[in-house]
Amino acid sequence: MRTLVLAAIVFRATVTFLMAGDNPAAQQLLVAAEQQSNLFHDQQDAFQMDVSFLAQINTVVPGHLTLMWKARDRWWRKISIGNFEQIDVQHGEMLYTTRNLGFTPVRVRELISLLEFAEGADRLHVRKQKQRFENGTEVLCFQTEGQSYRKDHELCIDSVSHDLASEEWKEPPDERRAERYTDYFAFEGHRYPRKLELLVNGIKALTVNVDHLTTAALDESLLVPPKGAIERRQCAGMRHPIPVKTPDPAYPKSASQNRLMGDTTVAMTVLADGSVTDVRLVGSAARSMDDATLQTLKGWKFKPAMCGTEPVVSDIEVVVSFRLD
Q1: Whole-number Cα distances in Å, 196 to 60, 111, 266
Q2: What average pLDDT does this structure show over 236-242?
Q3: Do the beta carbons of residue 289 and residue 322 sit within 8 Å?
Q4: Domains of the chain
Q5: Which residue, among 295, 292, 283, has the nearest Cα to 255 in the 3D structure?
Q6: Per the confidence metrics, is the pTM higher than 0.85?
Q7: CA 156 from chain center: how many Å?
C-alpha cells in the first residue's frame, strides 16, 4: 500500500498552545526549571554567547555561532557551518537575514531551537510522572503534550538541581528525537548547560559546546539592516499561516514499483496574499519524490500570517514522507 504523510509544517517561531496541567506540582517544577535556564526570557544584562558545534549532514561538519543579545527585539547573530554563513538581525519587529545560500539549512534551524531549549515548558500539559536513574543521577521525567505534532513527549529534570536534563519525542511518521543538556554552570542568576546534543533516531545530529557566555554590551551599529537582507516582520502574538489548499503530492509510480521511500523537505515563503513563492528543496529523498513534491507545493494556498489585522510575509518548511506499507 502506498502512503503519503505530511510530517510537519514548521515555522521559524516555535508554536505552542497553553494547556492547564492535571498535576500542579509537576507543572510548577517544569516552570521553575524553564525559568532557571531560559536566558532569552528575563535576562537583564546584555550578553555574548559563542558556540562551537558539529553537525551531521552527509558527513560531520564543524560550525560556529556568535550571538550578541540585548533583548528579544534587539539582537545580532552569526552562524557559519562549512561554507555556509548566515547573519540575522532583530531590530524591533523586523528580522533581517543575509545568507550565502537560497535557504537556511535544516541543521541551522535545529541548532537555534536547541539553544533555546528552555522555551515553552510552562505550556506543556503533564500527563504522567516517574522517577529513574540516568548515568547514576536521579531524574524526574514527565510525559507531556502541548504541540500537536509532538506525541509521546517526555521531559526530564535533575531531581536535585532541577536542571532540565533531556527532552524526547516522536515526529511522524517514524522519527524519534532527543535533546540532552549537561554540564550546567551559573550565569547572571540563571543556569545554562555547556554541552547540548540533538539525536535523531539515536544518531547525533548536533553536538554543541558553549565556549563563552559573558555579559557584553551590544554594539548598536550591528542592528543596522545589512544591505540586501531578507526582511520579515515578527510581532508579538503573531498568527502563523493556516493551510487552505494543500493537495498531497502523488507517490511516483517508479518509486512505488521500486519500493523507494524517503522524506522530502521543502522551504518556501508564504506571501501576504496566501500564495507561495521561493519553493526550494532543503532535504532530499529520491529525485522523483522531490520533483513531485516541488511541483505540487508550488500550488499550495494559505491564509497568510497575521500581525494584528495586517497580513505579513512568512517562511515555513514542509516535510513530506513517502512510505510503503
Answers
A1: 16, 10, 27
A2: 92
A3: yes
A4: 19-230 (2.50.20.10), 237-324 (3.30.2420.10)
A5: 292
A6: yes
A7: 19
